[in-house]
Amino acid sequence: MKDWHFLRQAHSLWERFSPNRLGVFGLVILLFYVLIALFANVLAIYPPLMTGSGPSFAGLSAAHPFGTDNLGRDIFSETLYGARATLVVSFLAVVASTVVGLGFGAIAGYFGGWVDEALMRITEVFLVIPAIFLALVFVSIFGGSAWNVVGVIALLSWPQMARLVRAEFLVIKEQTYIDAARTSGAGNLHVIFREILPNAISTVIVNVSLTQASAILIESSLSFLGFGDPAVVSWGLMLHNAQKYFNQNWLMAFIPGLSIFLTVLALNLVGEGLAEALNPRRNVRAASLPR
Amino acid sequence: MRLREFRFAALLTMRVPYALNRLLQAIPITLGILIFSFILIKLAPGDPITMFVGDGGASPEYVAELTRRLGLDRPIHEQLTLYLWRLLQGDLGTSIHQGSSVLSVIMARAQPTIVLMACGITSGVIAGVLLGVYASARPYSRRDNVIIVASLVLYSLPGFWLGQMLILVFSVKLGMLPAAGMSSFVVGAGAQWLDYATHLVLPTITLGAGLAAFVMRFVRTSMIEALGQDYILTARSKGLSDLVIFYKHALRNALLPVVTYVGLRVGHILSGAVVIESVFGWPGLGRLLIDSLFARDYPLIMGMFIVVSFSVVLVNLAVDILYSYIDPRIRAQ
Amino acid sequence: MRSFFVVAATIFMLLSGVSGANAQTPAAAGKPVYGGTLMAGMPLDLRNLNAAIFNATRTGQLVSVNLFDGLLQHSTWGDGKLMPGLAKSWKMSSDGLVYTFDLERGVTWHDGKPFTSADVKFGIQDICLPHHPVGRLNFSNIKSIDTPDANTVVITLKTFDAAFLGRLDPKWCAMAPKHLYEGTDIPNNKYNWAPVGTGPFKFKEWVRGSHMIFEKNENYWRKGSNGERLPYLDRLVFRVIPDETTLISSLESASIDYIPPLDVVPSAEIPRLNKTKGVKTITWPYANKDIFFLFFNMDRPVTRNVDARQALAHLVDTQDIITRVFSGSAIASSSKDVGFLTWFTGTNAPYYAYDLKRAEELLDKAGFKKDKDGKRFQLNLTITTESPEFLQIANLLKTSFARAGIALDIKVYDAAAATERVYKKLDYDLHIQTVAVGPDPYLLNKTWHSSNIGAGWITNASGYKNPKVDQMLDEGVRIVDVGNRKAAYGAIQNILMTDLPMLPIASSLKVFAFNDQLGGFPIGYTYRETLAGVHWLNAVPKGR
User: Nearest-CA neighbor of C502 among C220, C298, C221?
Assistant: First the structure.
């Protein structure tokens, strides 16, 4: 019974989403990259990070559709495997930041008062430190391994989610049906999870998509500056390598850069499309302020 | 008109206690940042002495002397309290490697970053506002859709990639614009201004592109909303000559949120500037940060944290007050 | 035509051996002119400028050497000879303990005051000895310094030191003015950041993170090889451009004129740059023989075993590394023809050619057999962020080790973290680092003498403890006869290549990249050469 209800909701969401051609376009691109990431080991010609698969800076050929890089790694295969790192790292970071952000925002928004004050102060500390400063210091100290990058991105992303959720909660909790629920004896936890949260979920979903876009940008910026994990193929790392070799094989920089761009674009389009679908006449100045 | 002014004044006086409140809140936040970053940096492996010495090693007496001179042999809580005490007196300490006071080092390197950010923000906002107004004039038309797609594309572009591509096209291939740095040391005042200008073009475009995209969307939505209001419809029906006045009215309403929004994003824009400085060899705070992290120059790293964070706190403060004025729902908190 | 000369010159230099006979490229076509500015681009800003008390990075050496001179210096072409500097000649007593230096006449500091023997005495005893990081190591052996007159300095040592004269090279003790440093707190003296020296250029301005400007020293004491006045240029501007791509494109678009050899120009770019109009490059072997070494941690279960170490050595495909990482611009440091000390000793040593079969045999013999999945063991390879080549070599090793069933886990740290981990705590399995073994092999002590285990940055990180080698290294510094000394170090080389605590791989050729309207390049192979001899050809270009 519940599943059917959920399917019906998903279906109606799709009905509202699909007319948005840009959103659908974004979804297609996203699915394309997800499939690439899933089936990289089938689609790729060579294993990841395999140097010497061909001469350095080889031209385009059937064996090397995008040529090779300075160590003879096949750019096509590397790009396919790079999708994995980029998508997985950003997704994990987004999950972590959403959970933490939801927690903070829900509690702060619902209880208000000094709880709200305290939680928001903590949030502000992280909002105030410019992202790149915090990220670089963290990665310099703890090393640039993939897990550390996930942690850093999560650390940078959760405050925005917390703020958004809190703002939603502030609005929703004033609604009359919430009062109704409370007077009929519902406990705090029930109200938070069963009454308010489902109504705030649309904003959260939109923000997840947009957060992932920014997570991918942060990860690739860190890798580009040389602070990422060198043992894992990622598009940012490929761009970092490519900096010196524009004149030897400009595809080394163009292809991964293009992939980052398309993935981020896709996520932004999907996020926008969802925002439209879930709440077509939302007030731009309130919670769903573009990031 | 008089009613508007009266309301504005009333709200302003109501905002003063709110403003003071926020200012007081800013202090523990800054303190929190300080202690947090102090601990973080001390956790880092390696120490400034090794970096100071360079390759070739050092005699043990030299290391001992330097450690003593830098005060690094005292226990951590002593180092922290000493630092905080000096800070209260306005002394940010001396950079281990550069020898001059931290504040002077930061101020010297801050100027190029501020110039870059100012140009980037200005050009981004102007471009965004113009495009937003243009798009909102005929919503959902073809040109509107083109502009929306363009803004989404610009917003999704990684800044460093855009910068590299611009350098590749305009500097390496076409030779029209310089590839790096702030100036080429030409002689003559007039030529110098032109030189600065040509050096600013590519970094400004790179930094402003993403911001323009945002601002454009924002302005467009605000304008469409404002133009759809009843009183405007009524006013329009009075005659076309009012169109200009109402555009100005709608635009004014749309601009204030833009300013507050940009203010909120200052920290984010600064992060973008740091990466772009790396691409264009811009002699600003970004490079300073990376160098001082590498060298474990504690006073300088801490100094940068404090100065930058405090600046962002101040900007956020100003913006919060303005923001609360616009949005009554948030104001109630 | 131009590229032909460069290639021919490179081959000529390579053929004449790593020690480089006096190999200069043919002179550029054109008449030298005085005047003009040289815009140099460098990828890092300096931290400090006083060469006397700060052990400079390579960038620092190339820049501050234009401001300071030393008493003497190592020959610019790296043939091991010593050239006069502020000391125009010197004599050593028969017991090797007393050195008498005759100073150049008429030398003045940049502020006009005369340079005298009192400056030398103060400089060595009161500036370099206490304040240079290795000052005590270099100069504690001095019993006394006497100055019988303003132009003579007599240094008496406690014990004979074959490498003593080399310690007076400007890298270890540049001359700084007594009248500005006496009685001050030397490390905090303001002249450390606005130096006054005797060099060909004077300090004018330093805007941190942006640029440095030096101006011509009108009264520079050194003359050119034909007796001409030096320097040619009026002004030097060093611009900080951190991004390499931007540096190269700045050179191509003539907004800078010169990129110093700071490992900025990737060797893959050299052929293309040679074809670019207005740009010229010269590649050359570094006289200090900085060689990429693979360190083995002698304290770990796998690498403590000498057969395992030799097996790993057989898995290093040096030629592949030279081709891919250095685009051919590197020289193998351990091969059939040459060992890493051959430039000094003249003899070769055991070497390990790439041989998968032999490697697997040795690994089996050492007891590290393959399991049912074909895997033997896993090692971590710790590298620093300083040179991009480290990561590239590591990636190539990862692939070639995998062929023998060895998994390599690459860990990257910045220099500060690596100093802790690798050089102090010895917490790693494998490490790649460049180590300088020239111009005098007494430098071997740093990385192979057991007293330097855990001593800090680039010291004995493999934990190699061989009492016999320790003794040979201690004695090697004291041998007076040059022939005997060569034989002694030849024997050391043999032992080190058999025990193999560290495997020498290759040393990269360095590159000067500059505007082809400039003459005077190459300036030298030791990173301590000034730009005094560099000049514009035929005419100073517009804007310079």
Answer: C298
Q: Give the full edge-to-edge strand order of the sheet including C87-92.
A: C87-92, C98-103, C152-157, C142-149
DSSP assignment letter at C104: P
Helix (H) or strand (E) holding C486: helix C482-499
Tokens 């990180």 belong to residue? C461
Contact A268 B155 (CB under 8 A): yes
Q: Please work out, in degrees rounded to the nearest 5, the angle formed at the alpha carbon of residue C466 by the alpha carbons of C463 and C469.
A: 120
Total number of domains constituting chain A? 1
Q: What is the pLDDT of residue A286?
A: 32
| β-pairing verdict for C406-413 and C235-240 | unpaired
pTM (global) more than 0.90: no
d(CA C152, CA C244): 47
Nearest CA in chain A to B314: A128
Tell me what the mean pLDDT of segment A179-199 comes to. 74
- Alpha carbon of B313: minimum distance to chain A alpha carbons (Å): 6
CB contact under 8 A, C209 and B287: yes
Q: How many angstroms away from the CA of C47 is the closest CA of chain A?
A: 20
Residue C119 contacts residue C204 (beta carbons within 8 Å) = no
Q: How far from the centroid of its chain's Cα atoms is residue B51's Cα?
A: 30
Q: Across the strands, what pairs with C40?
A: C238, C258
DSSP state of C167: G
Q: How far apart are CA C293 and CA B67, in angstroms?
A: 31
User: Given B46, B61, B62, which is nearest C417 (Cβ)?
Assistant: B46
Q: What would the two tokens of residue C417 be?
A: 């973290």
Q: Which residue of C has its CA nearest to B94?
A: C188
In chain A, which among 191-220 make CB contacts under 8 A with chain B?
Answer: 213, 217, 220
CB-based contact (8 Å) between A225 and chain C? Answer: no
Q: What are the residues whose beta carbons fall under 8 Å from the beta carbon of C62, sequence distance 6 or more?
A: C42, C260, C261, C262, C527
- The DSSP bridge pattern shows strands C377-384 and C82-84 to be unpaired
Contact A255, A60 (CB under 8 A): no
| Domain extent for A202 | 2-41+75-288
ipTM of the complex: 0.79
Q: What confidence tens digit (pLDDT) does each residue in B92-129 have?
A: 777 766 666 788 888 888 888 999 999 999 999 999 98
Is the CB of residue B50 less than 8 Å away from at least one CB of chain C? yes
* Residue for token pair 């351990």: C334
Neighbours of A76 (CB within 10 A): 20
Tell me the residue type at B9. Answer: A
Which of B53, B175, A162, A178 lies closest to C456 in space, CA to CA? B53
Q: For residue A143, what is the domain's CATH number?
A: 1.10.3720.10
In tens, the pLDDT along C456-497 reads 788 899 999 999 999 999 988 888 788 888 999 999 999 999
Residue A63 lies in a domain: no
Burial class (CB in 10 A: 0-12, 13-18, 19+), C47: buried
User: Going by C-beta distance under 8 Å and a sequence separation of 6 or more, which residues neighbour residue C381?
Assistant: C394, C397, C398, C408, C409, C410, C411, C429, C430, C431, C432
Instruction: Tell me, yes or no, if B38 comes closer than 8 A to chain A by beta carbon.
Output: no
The answer to whether C206 and C49 have CB atoms below 8 angstroms apart is yes
Q: Does a structural domain hold residue A66?
A: no
CB of C385 closer than 8 Å to CB of C412: yes
Dump the DSSP string for A133-202.
HHHHHHHHHH---HHHHHHHHHHHHHHHHHHHHHHHHHHHTTSHHHHHHHHTT--HHHIIIIIIHHHHHH
Residue A54 lies in a domain: no
DSSP secondary structure code for residue C213 in this structure: E
- By C-alpha distance, the chain A residue nearest C409 is A231
Which residues numbered 404-443 in C keep a CB inside 8 Å of some CB on B?
Answer: 413-421
Pick B40's closest partner by Cβ from A137, A243, A285.
Answer: A137
The answer as to whether A67 is a domain residue is no
